[in-house]
Design goal:
The protein has one helix at residues 32-37, and strands spanning 2-5, 12-15, 19-21, 24-31, 46-50. The chain is mainly beta. Strands 3-4-5 form a three-stranded antiparallel sheet. A two-stranded antiparallel ribbon has the order 1-2.
Length: 51
């Protein structure tokens, strides 16, 4: 996950790392540790999408 700050201090751009395999792809939606490192105080642990 790549988190980029913007000119508005409360607005961040979040880009996901997509993992491709022989059954499709997956990517984590939110990762608590990475959000905290970017200064985002959000009560969440982690979530994945599999398609």
């Amino acid at each position: 996950m790549k988190i980029t700050s913007t000119e508005l201090s409360e607005v961040k751009i979040i880009e996901y790392d997509k993992h491709v395999g022989n059954r499709g792809f997956s990517y984590p939606i939110l990762n608590k540790e990475q959000l905290e490192q970017a200064g985002i105080d959000f009560k969440y642990v982690e979530e994945y999408v599999y398609l």
